[in-house]
Design brief:
alpha/beta, eight-stranded mixed β-sheet, binds ligand NA7, flavoprotein, FAD/NAD-bd_sf, NAD(P)/FAD-dependent oxidoreductase
Length: 541
């Protein structure tokens, strides 16, 4: 029978992306009956929804993949250095088939509510299809960048042309041939989509509010020899990844950028630019993210690159970020982004000088009175990051307190995993964990494995409940804030701090201490018998 209130399951996992599918695999190994609810028409999460032109991972494919199965590592063959969205989705499908995961995934079903039954120590989980399931454990694997932001542009409903969101791109073929297209937003999604849309469109107008720092991907097909070379040492490479600071393997820098002279710095930055790695420039010196002067040397290097690529000096200047230090918002990895502005049919509109007044039936009107006539508008306007997907669910914990009430001034939890008063409810890639500051493929495995070990511990010891201790949670919040305060991140208005969403509390939302340190802290907690958590057994179990 389908799981229902009468047929309880052991665990509900919310979301069938990379995190949720791996969590299902692990819980199954423990012998838990598990159901995964997925809102989409198919599995894949982020890589299902973000199928916009040019969508591609900005972590190398050989690193951005599951590490838990040596056999999977050997059999899967990536075709490019940076995998495109369709290839990553094919990989996710392959994994789901290989580990027979689909049979426990219920598609087209959004979890709308989860309420804790304090007497029976179970969660009652409801969906938009009218199902209710009870489960002892709930894992929110609902994504750190999965709730698209409402762009809040007036008049959007009146436009008579086509409207697209990069984060909700249709599955059907979209053709821009012969069309006048607008892209609003120049974050990583816009930066990837713009050059590809420009290939097709008759005219492309980019509406930019804040320019991004975009670095060249130098994407290319992978050579058979380099794949074979890595596969020969994949176990060792995976171990190094797990122990690394951000989920990718590199030799950490040892010197301050300010200790090097101009020529030396330039050479280091040129090499990093040529490396095609998202964090290449960050890895040159120790203090790029902690010292404004050091950071400015990199920021100015990127601006000099923009000036050397973009032929019109005024456009180059508009594309040059000046309002925030390099990498305090996520840098973008691109293919041909800046050079696209040299094409005669591509126009850049600076929303700082001429903001959008309204969208009209025919196009977009800016404050200078100009109406940009359009056939299609693409919103690449970002997400309600890190907390959006958890707060989208009506979660009711102990004493009838909702997660929305509890997090009204910002998220609170212990280890980024469990929030006090919401027992047995775990989050993968949620707030106050390293998530978005790392290679999330490595981060999600670490958290899924910690959660799985924790549940195994509870069951082995006849325990039914784990909750965060309020004092430990307060300490964790202070620790995360303190780690962030050592960096340039928290002072910058970005989606890392919630500043992109009107009314969202301003809190630096990620753990900036590194995945290696985070892993040690999580492991130490588990080893000590879950210090900072309250574990209990109940007779009703
Ligand atoms: P981002 O990085 O949040 O970028 C959103 C962009 O859209 C950014 O340039 C915003 O400008 C712009 N934006 C947002 N709202 C508006 C309105 N109303 N008007 C004009 N411009 C607007 O999202 P992405 O999807 O590009 O990238 C998200 C992450 O996904 C990425 O870092 C990868 O990790 C994967 P603003 O900066 O707010 O001035």
């Amino acid at each position: 029978a389908a799981p229902s209130a009468a047929h309880p399951v052991d665990a509900v996992v919310v979301g069938a992306g990379l995190s949720g599918l791996y969590q299902l695999h692990r819980l199954r190994e423990l012998g838990l009956t598990t159901v995964v609810f997925e809102a989409g028409d198919d599995i894949g999460g982020t890589w299902y929804w973000n199928r916009y032109p040019g969508a591609r991972c900005d972590v190398e494919s050989l690193s951005y993949s599951y590490s838990f199965s040596p056999e999977l590592d050997q059999e899967w063959e990536w075709s490019e250095r940076y995998a495109s969205q369709p290839e990553i989705l094919r990989y996710i499908h392959h994994v789901a088939d290989r580990f027979d995961l689909r049979r426990d995934v219920t598609l087209r079903t959004r979890v709308t509510r989860a309420a804790y039954d304090e007497d029976r120590h179970v969660w009652r989980v409801s969906t938009d299809t009218g199902r209710t399931v009870t489960a002892r454990f709930v894992v929110l694997a609902s994504g750190c960048m999965s709730v698209p932001k409402d762009p809040g542009v007036p008049g959007a409903g009146s436009f008579t042309g086509a409207v697209y969101y990069t984060a909700r791109w249709p599955r059907e073929e979209v053709s821009f041939t012969g069309k006048r297209v607008a892209v609003i937003g120049t974050g990583c999604s816009g930066v990837q989509a713009i050059p590809v849309i420009a290939e097709e469109a008759a005219a492309l107008t980019v509406f930019q509010r804040t320019p991004a720092y975009a670095l060249p991907a130098h994407n290319r097909p992978l050579r058979g020899t380099e794949i074979a070379e890595l596969k020969a040492r994949y176990p060792e490479f995976r171990r190094a990844q797990r122990l690394s600071r951000g989920g990718t393997v590199f030799e950490p820098p040892t010197r301050s950028a300010l200790e090097a002279d101009e020529a030396e710095r330039r050479a280091a930055y040129e090499a990093a630019w040529g490396s095609g790695l998202l964090s290449g420039l960050l890895r040159t010196y120790t203090d790029i993210l902690t010292d404004e002067k050091a950071n400015e040397t990199v920021a100015e290097f990127v601006r000099s690159k923009i000036r050397s690529i973009v032929t019109d000096p005024a456009t180059a200047e508009l594309l040059s970020p000046r309002t925030f230090p390099f990498a305090t918002k996520r840098p973008c990895l691109d293919t041909g982004y800046y050079a696209t502005y040299n094409r005669p049919h591509v126009t850049l509109v600076d929303l700082r000088t001429t903001p959008i007044e309204t969208i009209t039936p025919r196009g977009i009107r800016t404050s200078d009175g100009r109406e940009h006539a359009l056939d299609a508008i693409v919103f690449a306007t970002g997400f309600d990051a890190l907390t959006g997907s958890q707060l989208a669910v009506d979660i009711v914990g102990k004493g009838g307190v909702t997660l929305r009430e509890k997090w009204a001034d910002g998220p609170r939890n212990h280890l980024g995993l469990v929030s006090a008063g919401f027992p047995n409810l775990f989050t993968v890639l949620g707030p106050l964990s390293p998530s978005v500051l790392t290679n999330i493929a490595v981060s999600l495995e670490q958290q899924v494995e910690w959660i799985t070990d924790c549940i195994a511990h509870l069951r082995r010891n006849g325990l039914t409940e784990i909750d965060a201790a309020p004092a430990a949670e307060a300490d964790w919040g202070a620790h995360v804030a303190e780690l962030a305060a050592r960096t340039l991140y928290p002072a910058v208005a970005s989606w890392y701090t919630g500043a992109n969403i009107p009314g969202k509390p301003l809190v630096f939302l990620a753990y900036a201490g590194g995945l290696d340190r985070y892993r040690e802290e999580c492991d130490a907690v588990a080893r000590s018998g879950y210090t900072g958590f309250i574990l209990s057994a109940t007779s009703s179990s």
